[in-house]
Amino acid sequence: MIRQALGFAGPPCAPVIAGPHLCNLLIVYSVPDSGHERGRIVTMSNTPMAASPLTRAVLEIDEYVSGLGWDQPARLFALVDTARLRADQPSLADRLGLQEEPESSGLTPIEQDEVPTDQALDEFLGTIAWPDAVVGCALAVERLMLPPSAEAQVPSGLNEKKLAQWVAEHPDRQEVRMTVAVLRDGSRDSALRLREKDAATEVLTGSDLVPGLAAALTATFEE
Known about the structure:
globular; alpha+beta
């Protein structure tokens, strides 16, 4: 279950600057081939119990955000170790309602405050610091993607604004929701959901589907 906003994320004393374009959010994305071996189709209902806690957290967030519909702003989540939080901070766990949940060694996603819309996403991520209780984080964001065949058509010399406009006007564009999660130890996973195939059985998961965004989220744990 997704827990609602608890302000884990905050600015560090000396902000970690992720650097321009680290998220790769304004370049042309390629639509992954669902038959590629690095991805797999999984849903909340058919996810094997052997799946990692991180994969289950990614799918839980994807399912939660999909229930809110499309055309949503980016959403940031803290990931906490459920068992550790119960043991180390029982009062906080009680506030989050975790004491009422069945015993679990998994991860609990906690939605943070709204991501600002007047700031570039990579710049915003560069201002985040997490307390020790947070073992990972995740971000769900909607973007436009193009098939690999369209990459050769990209005009040269476009700035970010014009490139985004060119992608938005391309006839083969597809809307996609990317949910990317990382842990402090470097583990990562992600889920992609296309708007035209908006079904749990069509969700593509894999650890390297959105490497730029995964790297930017990992950087929020660097000191």
